[in-house]
Structures are given as structure tokens and as C-alpha cells.
Write a structure and sequence with these properties.
This protein is mostly helical and 340 residues long. The protein is built from 14 helices and four strands. It has a single domain (23-28, 37-329), classed as ABC transporter involved in vitamin B12 uptake, BtuC, CATH 1.10.3470.
Length: 340
């Protein structure tokens, strides 16, 4: 017994996994390689900031799905509807607080954005709990059935959005202080994109902190590697699964808010419009890897921006090309976690 106690009290003696730095170098290398092709340094900075902002929005929409797949082994084709639902949830705040959007006050504008995010995460979190209980839970372990039923759930939920808010596109105003751009010489950076970068970094930092520094994060990572062992230690892995699905849905709602203000138009299918890109990012990053999803999102967005400026005809296939090159180099993605 004493030996067991001694071993348990010395976790620092356990070997730590080495950080794979090579994929992280892809982003700065890509930016430096693109600079001579873009030509103007100011244009390069503008394209880079815009790419980082787009990457952060993609990450917010994709991070929940990669976490759900990594832990629960669920292919949720209905994830896009949570993005749309989160976007429409902004109307619950913009309706009574419309004056805050037009007020020339950075405090009121950011408070409005925060309230929209909280409302969207609450709505999509509740919807995610119902979605998991009614649609997903009966098909655990069968990928084909998961694809079919989640697609069915997507169609039903989209029709519910039409029934509640109507089928016509709904314009939403960008808060006054987030319009326009910061101009530094010849460099132009849109204010909203800068805010999107900040929010994306905060969310990524929070997720990394929770996954790596808390007990719940330890259980999630252990559940990814060996769910049977976690269950054998007395933890209710099913309850953990449900919590992760709810968190993933809430993150999709957060991404939906940022995407809605970026587009400034709401449609029921806006979430599905980005799902191909979301799946590409998840595949590039490695199934179940939040860090890989983060790097993959930025990589895909930067490539799309640079290629779109240098050779617009290739912009539409740039994402597929990046995915193909990454999978040739690393078939399991940049940071593989779920080896299935």
C-alpha cells in the first residue's frame, strides 16, 4: 500500500509527451514565402490579419466538432445547424437592445457582442443536449447511422428555424464601433477582424487551459485514449460524453455569432455553407486535436487569402490542395489524437 501511495504522490516522475514543433512552423514559413509573391509589405500585413481573423472564426466553428469526434467517436453532420442556430440567437439580444448596436460607444458595442455570444452559447448548448439525447444517443457506435440521423436532424432543425424566423434572409447590423478599420500608414486592418482574432485566441487559450490543467480536461484526454479505463476507475464516461457534446454545440453557437456579424446576414443554411471547410480543417489538424484544429484553421485561411490575391482562379481549390499535401506528409493529420 505504501508503494502505491508513494507512486501516486509523485506525478512529476511520469514522462511528458514531447511537443511536435514542426507543424507549428508551417504558419510563419507560409507567411514568409507569400511575402515576395504579394509584393507590397502593407498588402501582405492586411492579407495576413484578414487570414488570421478568418482562421479564428473557422476554429470557433470547428473546435467543438473535433472535440466531439475525438472523445465520442461521433460523426455529426448536423453540426452546421448549431452554427446557424447560434447566429439566429443573436436576434434574441439585438431585438430589445438594438440601440446598443447603433450607439457610438465601444463599451456598449462590446457588451452587446458579449451578450449575443452568451445567448447563442446557451441556446445551442440546450439544443445540443436535446440533439444528443433524442438523435445521437441511439446510434452510438455506428458511423453510417450517425451520418444518416444527424443529417435528418439537420433538415428538421433548419425547418424549425424557417418556422420561427422565416425563410427570408435577415440583415443584422454590425455594432458601430466595430465598423471601419484601423489604418496604420498603408496598412488597413478591419476592426471586427481584430476583435475576431482576440476572441479566437481567448477561446483557444481557455480550451487549452481546461484540457491540460484541470481534472475535467484530464478525464477528457484520458477518454480520448482509453474510455474503458476511465469507466473502470469509477467515472461516468457517458455523463462526460454528454457534457462534451453540449460544450461542442455551444462553441458552434459562438462561431455562429462571429460568422453572422461577419456576413451581416442570417440564413438558415449559413452553417452548412462552411461545413466542408470545417471538415477539411479537422482532417488537416488531426481527428480530435484542438491544437491541430487551431493550426489547420489558420493555415487554410492564410492560404486562401494569399492564393486569392496572387492567383484568384486557384482560390477555390486551395483548401483541397492544402489538405492533400498535409495528408501526403502526415496521413493522420498534423496532430493526431484519435487513432481509429
Amino acid at each position: 500500500m505504501s508503494d502505491l501511495t508513494t507512486d501516486a504522490a509523485a506525478p512529476t516522475d511520469l514522462p511528458r509527451a514531447k511537443t511536435d514543433w514542426l507543424p507549428l512552423l508551417l504558419i510563419p514559413v507560409l507567411a514568409l514565402v507569400a511575402l515576395p509573391f504579394v509584393g507590397s509589405p502593407s498588402t501582405w500585413v492586411t492579407l495576413t490579419v484578414a487570414g488570421l481573423a478568418m482562421g479564428m472564426m473557422i476554429f470557433l466553428m470547428a473546435s467543438g466538432l473535433t472535440l466531439v469526434f475525438g472523445l465520442m467517436d461521433i460523426i455529426n453532420f448536423g453540426h452546421g445547424v448549431f452554427i446557424s442556430l447560434g447566429a439566429y440567437a443573436t436576434l434574441l439580444v439585438l431585438g430589445p437592445l438594438a440601440g446598443w448596436a447603433s450607439a457610438d460607444s465601444i463599451g456598449l458595442n462590446l457588451s452587446l457582442l458579449l451578450l449575443c455570444i452568451l445567448a447563442a452559447m446557451a441556446v445551442t448548448g440546450i439544443a445540443g443536449a436535446v440533439f444528443e439525447r433524442v438523435i445521437v444517443r441511439p446510434v452510438y457506435g455506428s458511423h453510417l447511422k450517425q451520418i444518416l440521423v444527424t443529417m435528418g436532424g439537420l433538415i428538421v432543425t433548419e425547418q424549425l428555424i424557417h418556422a420561427i424566423w422565416g425563410a427570408s434572409p435577415i440583415p443584422i447590423p454590425l455594432p458601430q464601433s466595430l465598423r471601419g478599420a484601423f489604418v496604420l500608414g498603408d496598412i488597413v486592418m478591419e476592426r471586427y477582424r481584430v476583435v475576431a482574432v482576440a476572441i479566437g485566441l481567448v477561446v483557444f487559450g481557455g480550451m487549452q487551459l481546461i484540457l491540460n490543467r484541470t481534472r475535467i480536461g484530464l478525464l477528457i484526454r484520458a477518454g480520448v485514449e482509453n474510455p474503458e479505463m476511465v469507466e473502470a476507475l469509477g467515472y461516468r464516461i457517458r455523463r462526460l460524453f454528454v457534457s462534451v457534446f453540449i460544450a461542442g454545440s455551444a462553441l458552434a453557437g459562438l462561431g455562429g455569432v462571429m460568422w453572422a456579424f461577419y456576413r451581416q446576414t442570417l440564413t438558415a443554411g449559413m452553417g452548412m455553407e462552411v461545413m466542408v471547410l470545417v471538415f477539411i480543417v479537422i482532417i488537416i489538424g488531426g481527428l480530435g486535436s484542438v491544437g491541430g484544429c487551431f493550426v489547420g484553421s489558420i493555415l487554410v485561411a492564410l492560404v486562401a487569402n494569399y492564393v486569392g490575391f496572387i492567383e484568384p482562379k486557384l482560390a477555390l481549390i486551395s483548401n483541397i490542395l492544402v489538405m492533400a499535401l498535409v495528408l501526403i506528409w502526415r496521413p493522420q493529420g498534423l496532430f493526431p489524437v484519435a487513432r481509429r
